[in-house]
Structure to design on (582 residues):
C-alpha cells in the first residue's frame, strides 16, 4: 500500500463532509446556540390566533411563509400539498357562514352549560384575516406508487400536516398570526374551492397580522385543557401493558367564529370584561361592522297570505283569520302592530295573497297563476315567485336605507308550508321539521306530517335534483309571504341594513336569501328562537344565535320587535360605557 495520502474528492453538490469529520465531531451539524434558542423560542411562542388586524401582508412575506411550507418533509418526496390562497371577500364570507353553521351544530351536541361556554369562545377569524390559506392534499396518486405509502397510505396527509407546521412556525417568526380552522364539512369546503375528486382539504388557515398576543395557548388559558407533562406522553421501548394513557381533559367539541376587527376594537376599550354581554356583544359587533353605531327607527315588514294547504285540515284556525289579523294590523291594534309601535318601528303591511277585498293602508301584490296545496301541486308558479321576490327586494332596498328591517308574517297554515320548505332546503325528513303550530292538537299534527310527507314526495318526483335550487323549492313548497320576505332580506342586505328575524317563516325567508346570496348572512340577526320544531335547524343553517328564547308563538314579528329593542339598548350601552385608555 502506498504511503501517499491522496486528496479526498469533495463533491460539488450534496454532502461535502467526510466520515472522519463526522466521527470527530458528531455535533458539528448543529446550529449556533443563539439560532437554536431562537428556533425553540418560535416553537414555544406559536399560538392558534383567532383575532386579526385587517392590514395587508406584503407579498414577499406571504411568499416566504409559503416557501417554508413548501420545504416541509414529505413521504417519498411526494410533495402532495397544494395551497389555495383565498383573498376573495365573497368566498371568505361563504366559508365563514359554513363555520358558523358547524359551530352551532357542535354546540347543540353538548350539555347546556358546556354549550354556552363553547359559544362564548372565539375560535377562528375567517372574516377578519386578510388571507385564508386552505391546505389541500392531492391524493390522486395511488399509495403504492409513492415510496413509503404502500404500508402507510395516509402518509400523504401527514406530509401536508408537516407543511402546515412549517408555515405556522414561519408565520410566527415573521410576526404573523395563524389559526387552523376545521369547522367545516370537508365536502362543502371542497365544493366551495372547486376541488376535483381525489383532492381533500386539511382545513382553513387564517393568516394575517394578529390582533392578540396570547402568552399561552388560548384553550389552556380558558380552562378547557392543559398541556400534559412530557413524562405522560413518553414511553420507553413499548406501550405499557397495564394501562393506556389518559387523553387530555377538554370540554371543547366545536370551534367558533368571530366578529369583525373594527367593531371588536371598540368593544375591547370598554370598562368591562370582554364579551360581557354574551350573544348581544357578538350581535352588536355584527351591527357595528355593517356601519351602524346606533339604530335608526326602522320598520317592521309584516307580510300576509292565505294558503290552499289549509283546506287539508292542517290548521286549528279558518283561513279568514289571516285577513282579520291583517285588518287589525292596519288599524294598529294587532299584536305585531302594537309591538312595532312599542319598539319605535314603522309598520309596512304587505298583502301577498289574502282572500277578499283589499285592506286600506296595505300594499297588495297580485299574482297571475293558480296556486297549489303542496300535496297535489306546486304552491306557486316560478313566474309569480319571481314577481313576489322582486317586489320584496325593491321594498327591502327602500326601507333598508332608513334603518333596521324587522320581519313578521301572518298566514293560517303557514307552519305546514314552512315545514315542507325547510325539509327541502335542509334535505331532512318531515318528522324532523313538522311542529304543532298555533293551537294544533295531535290529530292535526298527524295530518300535517302526512301532508308534508306527500308534498315532498310529489315535489321530488316533479322537480328531481332541481329541488335543491332555492327558487325551485320556494315555488314548489313555499308561500307568497315567504317569497316577499326573501326579497325584502335581499334588498335590505344590499342596503347594508340590519335584518331582524322573527320565527320559523321569516328565518326560512332569510335562508332562501342566503342560499341565493351567502353574503346576506352578515346582515342577519336572529331575534328569537320559536317553539317550532324546524326553527333550531334553520337558525343553525343560517349560523345565527337567537337573542331571545321566550317560547313565543305570536308570529306577526313580535319577537323581532322585542329583539330590536334589546339590540338598540345594547348599542346604547356600548356607546355610553366608560372607555379605558391604552
Amino acid at each position: 500500500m502506498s504511503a501517499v495520502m491522496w486528496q479526498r474528492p469533495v463533491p460539488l453538490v450534496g454532502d461535502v463532509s467526510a466520515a472522519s469529520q463526522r466521527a470527530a465531531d458528531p455535533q458539528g451539524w448543529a446550529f449556533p446556540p443563539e439560532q437554536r434558542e431562537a428556533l425553540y423560542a418560535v416553537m414555544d411562542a406559536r399560538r392558534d390566533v383567532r383575532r386579526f388586524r385587517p392590514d395587508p401582508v406584503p407579498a414577499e412575506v406571504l411568499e416566504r411563509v409559503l416557501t417554508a411550507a413548501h420545504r416541509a418533509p414529505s413521504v417519498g418526496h411526494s410533495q402532495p400539498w397544494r395551497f389555495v390562497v383565498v383573498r376573495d371577500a365573497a368566498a371568505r364570507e361563504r366559508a365563514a357562514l359554513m363555520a358558523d353553521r358547524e359551530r352551532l351544530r357542535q354546540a347543540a351536541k353538548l350539555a347546556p352549560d358546556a354549550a354556552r361556554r363553547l359559544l362564548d369562545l372565539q375560535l377562528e377569524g375567517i372574516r377578519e384575516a386578510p388571507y385564508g390559506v386552505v391546505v389541500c392534499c392531492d391524493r390522486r396518486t395511488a399509495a403504492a406508487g409513492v415510496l413509503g405509502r404502500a404500508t402507510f397510505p395516509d402518509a400523504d396527509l401527514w406530509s401536508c400536516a408537516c407543511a402546515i407546521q412549517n408555515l405556522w412556525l414561519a408565520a410566527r417568526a415573521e410576526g404573523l398570526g395563524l389559526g387552523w380552522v376545521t369547522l367545516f364539512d370537508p365536502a362543502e369546503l371542497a365544493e366551495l374551492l372547486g376541488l376535483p375528486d381525489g383532492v381533500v382539504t386539511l382545513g382553513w388557515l387564517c393568516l394575517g397580522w394578529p390582533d392578540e398576543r396570547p402568552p399561552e395557548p388560548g384553550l389552556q388559558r380558558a380552562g378547557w385543557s392543559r398541556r400534559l407533562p412530557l413524562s405522560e406522553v413518553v414511553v420507553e421501548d413499548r406501550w405499557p401493558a397495564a394501562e393506556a394513557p389518559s387523553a387530555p381533559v377538554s370540554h371543547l367539541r366545536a370551534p367558533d367564529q368571530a366578529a369583525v376587527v373594527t367593531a371588536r376594537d371598540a368593544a375591547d376599550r370598554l370598562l368591562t370584561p370582554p364579551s360581557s354581554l354574551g350573544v348581544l356583544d357578538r350581535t352588536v359587533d355584527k351591527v357595528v361592522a355593517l356601519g351602524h353605531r346606533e339604530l335608526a327607527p326602522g320598520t317592521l315588514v309584516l307580510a300576509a297570505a292565505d294558503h290552499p294547504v289549509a283546506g287539508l285540515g292542517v290548521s286549528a284556525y279558518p283561513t279568514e283569520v289571516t285577513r282579520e289579523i291583517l285588518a287589525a294590523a292596519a288599524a294598529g291594534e294587532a299584536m305585531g302592530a302594537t309591538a312595532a309601535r312599542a319598539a319605535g318601528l314603522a309598520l309596512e303591511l304587505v298583502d301577498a295573497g289574502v282572500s277578499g277585498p283589499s285592506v286600506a293602508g296595505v300594499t297588495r301584490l297580485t299574482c297571475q297563476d293558480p296556486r297549489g296545496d303542496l300535496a297535489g301541486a306546486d304552491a306557486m308558479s316560478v313566474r309569480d315567485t319571481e314577481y313576489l321576490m322582486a317586489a320584496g327586494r325593491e321594498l327591502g332596498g327602500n326601507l333598508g336605507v332608513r334603518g333596521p328591517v324587522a320581519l313578521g308574517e301572518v298566514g293560517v297554515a303557514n307552519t305546514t308550508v314552512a315545514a315542507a320548505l325547510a325539509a327541502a332546503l335542509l334535505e331532512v325528513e318531515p318528522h324532523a321539521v313538522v311542529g304543532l303550530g298555533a293551537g294544533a292538537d295531535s290529530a292535526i299534527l298527524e295530518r300535517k306530517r302526512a301532508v308534508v310527507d306527500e308534498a315532498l314526495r310529489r315535489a321530488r318526483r316533479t322537480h328531481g335534483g332541481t329541488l335543491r335550487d332555492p327558487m325551485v323549492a320556494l315555488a314548489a313548497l313555499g308561500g307568497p309571504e315567504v317569497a316577499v320576505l326573501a326579497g325584502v332580506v335581499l334588498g335590505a342586505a344590499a342596503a347594508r341594513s340590519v335584518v331582524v328575524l322573527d320565527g320559523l317563516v321569516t328565518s326560512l325567508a332569510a335562508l332562501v336569501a342566503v342560499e341565493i346570496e351567502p353574503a346576506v348572512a352578515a346582515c342577519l340577526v336572529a331575534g328569537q328562537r320559536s317553539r317550532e320544531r324546524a326553527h333550531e335547524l334553520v337558525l343553525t343553517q343560517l349560523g345565527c344565535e337567537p337573542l331571545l328564547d321566550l317560547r313565543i308563538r305570536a308570529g306577526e314579528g313580535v319577537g323581532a320587535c322585542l329583539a330590536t329593542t334589546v339590540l338598540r339598548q345594547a348599542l346604547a350601552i356600548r356607546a355610553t360605557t366608560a372607555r379605558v385608555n391604552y
Notes: The first helix runs from residue 19 to 24. Residues 247-260 have pLDDT under 50 and may be disordered. Strands lie at 81-86, 131-138, 177-181, 199-208, 299-304, 346-351, 363-364, 405-410, 499-501, 524-526. Residues 224 and 450 are 46 Å apart (CA to CA).
